[in-house]
Structures are given as C-alpha cells and as structure tokens.
C-alpha cells in the first residue's frame, strides 16, 4: 500500500489515470455527436448531371426530385474531373435521345459514374440511388411499359483491386500522427532533463534539428515501403514530398500541445484523434457529418494527409490543395510554439558549487 500511495503522489501517475478516463470520453463526445443522424444527410452529397439540350426536361425533373445537391456539368470530361477532385460524389450521364431509345427494342441506358475512392457508405448510397433513379426515369419516360427499357450502367472510377491498398491512405495520413505524438512525448521528457544545463533556445532548436532529420528519413522509408508493396499511382518523389509534409505537420501540431500544456500535452494531442479520424473522409463523407464538424478537417494534419494520400494512391485529381493545407498547418503551429517558448520564463541555472575553503595552516 505504501508503494501505491507513493505512486499516486507522482504527477505522471495522476496524468496516466486521467488518460484512462479522458480517451473514451472524447471518443464518445465527438463520434456520438458527429455521426449522429449521418445517414439522413444524403442531401448534402453532390451529384454532377451531364445531358444534351434535348434532354433538359428530364434533367429538370431529376434536379427537382433527387435528394442531392445537383450540379449541372457542361461535359462528361469536366464532370469526371470534378469528381476526381472530390467536388462531386457521383456523375449521372443522360444519353441523347433517351426517350426515343427507350421506345426501341434495344432500350436505353443511364450511366452512373461512382468514384471507388469514396467511403463505403457513400458508394453504397450512390449505387442504391442509381437503381431508384433508373426506376423513376422509366416511370416518367415510358410509363406504359411493362418491362424496364431504361437500364442502369454503373461505372466505377479509380477502382481499388486489392482491399489492402484501401488501408494505405490511413497508413500514410494517420500513422505519422501517432508516431510523432509518441516521439514528442519522449522528447519532452528529454528536454526536462536538459533544462538544468542548457538554455531553452538551445534545447528548442536542438529538438527541431533532430525532428527535421526524423521527418526526412521516416517519410523516405515510408514512401519506399508504400511504393514497394502497393500499386501507388503517384511517382515516388510525389509520395515522398507529400509524406514529408504530413510528418512535418504532425510534428509541429503535436509539439504545440507540449508547448501549451507541458507534461499534459498528450491530452491535447489525444483530444484531436477522434475528430481527425471522423473528418478524414475514409469512413464517411465529411458532408454527412453534423454541421459543426464538416470543415474542421481542413485545419488538422490527419484529414489532409488521408485525403491527399487517396489521390496519390488511387490516382485522379490533385493533392496540391491538401499539401497547401499541410504547409499552413506547419507554419501556424510552429509559429505558435516559437511564441510560447519566447513567452515562457526560463529558470535560472543552478549556481556552481564553490570550492571548499582550504584547511587552516
């Protein structure tokens, strides 16, 4: 019992106990509020609609009846490009002469393009809605037909052949956050040991130098492994450059927690884990989250890392927007850490022990 009492007097023990309760509570708080009624928000998803002028009447009927944000596209190529860049979740292409073709023996086709890079929930919703939209088109174009002359054709873009490949964006975008958070825990302890003999700025810039080297080497190793084990669409240097930004953003973000809260810094970093996983877009589209959470991911390293990695791994679209967000995260969080370090009072070094007085002759 004496050992237990002694342990409870140590601040690290108390922080550990707080962790045991804090982590489940933040997951409850954010996931239960963020995912609440998510499946009822399909009206927040975006669908591109491509059609010829002759099919404007049918297109207008679809626009007024579909439970989506409908965006009319001028060409199929532009529509698919917008879908690749995450602007839309599905593209519907109405063929010219749809009504005429529906009355022939060969029938007609409504073509639906679904990005396989989307979350499983979004893909499921879109494929289910494709059947309903096709049935609605049959009822309006050929209401007298017994069979269904208009059929659905679903074409998936950026197809994922191997399920393990679908895990790669999480490895590239989320795991660096956990790794750098753990590293900064140890670096914070090391810095405390050095405070007696070194100034705060020498310790700070020494840490920055080591962490920069870690970011370069770790991102290089991760990129080599990623290109070796999976069919990554982007070039090696494209993956390495982006992954370096992910590591730097995670380093600077998790370092800020320790600059602000000291030994309680891990609470800051853990606090953002459920938010980042929720807004990363691989579980559910951010548009389907509760309104408060939809745009938070743009300001955090993991959602930008995961979304950008999806473009790099699967192809289609550009990761430049997410790379820019990561650069801004690095600049802002590192700047705040420098400011906090500047404002922190530096403890005076302990005076050197005076030599003992010489013995009397």
In brief, what are we looking at here?
The chain is α/β, with parallel strands linked by helices and 361 residues long. It has helices at residues 2-8, 11-34, 56-65, 76-84, 98-102, 120-141, 168-173, 175-194, 200-229, 236-261, 265-271, 273-279, 301-314, 320-343, and strands at 46-50, 69-73, 90-93, 108-115, 150-157. It is elongated and about 90 Å long.
Work out the count of structural domains: 2
- Name the helix and strand elements from N-terminus to C-terminus, one letter apiece: HHEHEHEHEHEHHHHHHHH
| Helix percent band | 55-70%
Apparent shape: elongated
- Quaternary structure state of the chains depicted: single chain
- Low-confidence stretches are 356-361
Number of beta strands: 5
Kindly report the average pLDDT value. 88
What fraction of the residues are assigned to beta strands by DSSP?
A: 5-15%
- How far apart lie the N and C ends? 55 Å
Query: How many helices?
Result: 14
* Main beta-sheet strand count, sense and barrel state: 5 strands, mixed
Using the CA coordinates, give the radius of gyration.
28 Å
What does this structure look like?
It is a single chain. The chain has helices at 2-8, 11-34, 56-65, 76-84, 98-102, 120-141, 168-173, 175-194, 200-229, 236-261, 265-271, 273-279, 301-314, 320-343; strands spanning 46-50, 69-73, 90-93, 108-115, 150-157. It is of the alpha/beta class and 361 residues long. It has two domains: 11-35 and 164-343, no CATH class; 41-159, abc type-2 transporter like fold (3-Layer(aba) Sandwich), CATH 3.40.1710.10. Helix 3 (56-65) links the parallel strand 1 and strand 2 (69-73). The longest helix is centred in the middle third of the chain and has 30 residues, at 200-229.
